[in-house]
Amino acid sequence: MEAIREWGAIPSTDRYAMLDRIRQPALVVHGNKDVVVAPINAFILAQHLPDAQLVMYPDASHGAQSQHAGVFLEHARTFLNE
Asked: How far is CA 41 from the centre of its chain?
């Protein structure tokens, strides 16, 4: 539980130091009302990945993909077909 809480906190500056080496496109999907992993982490992750797209679903929590299943599938299809 401590590790989960720590990951949900705003990370230290070196936590994402190796992410710039990932060259694969990434789709970062998050709910803006997630209480398990704070939404700021999705922004930070997308910022540190060289080829990331961020989708933030409104009024969604930790299960954003299932809460917005239809639109998520469209986003995923578009991402995978690019």
From this structure: 7
